[in-house]
Amino acid sequence: HPAAKTLVDIAKSQDAEVGDGTTSVTLLAAEFLKQIKPYVEEGLHPQIIIRAFRVATQLAVEKIRKIAITIKKTDPIELNGLLEKCASTALSSKLISHQKDFFAKMVVD
């Protein structure tokens, strides 16, 4: 089935590029497919669906930019704390999640 093959390809690509997040990316893609299924069944042209996803992506990026916060670089302790939180989140993979705090501090230092 083409949709199943696409999900497998997405998971393989995610694993090759990042090494983690295969379940998340597969679930996200599956949800996209689930949401567009009625439109495909109604005969809506795939290009219209693709265009809608592109518009939705632009709206999401605009929203992220709107809610973004500015990090003050005047307080080094506060800045290091925020950077460690960011690094810790990025390191929350199945590979090293049990030592993410150690590596987060190392990355920031």
From TrEMBL:
What are the record keywords, sorted? ATP-binding, Chaperone, Nucleotide-binding
* Highest taxon above the source species: Eukaryota
The record's listing under InterPro entries reads: Chaperone_TCP-1, Chaperonin_TCP-1_CS, Cpn60/GroEL/TCP-1, GROEL-like_equatorial_sf, TCP-1-like_intermed_sf
What GO annotations for molecular function exist for this entry? ATP binding; ATP hydrolysis activity; ATP-dependent protein folding chaperone; unfolded protein binding
Pfam families from the UniProt entry: Cpn60_TCP1 (PF00118)
Protein family according to the UniProt entry? Belongs to the TCP-1 chaperonin family.
What is the name of this protein? T-complex protein 1 subunit eta
Question: Lineage, please?
Answer: Eukaryota, Metazoa, Chordata, Craniata, Vertebrata
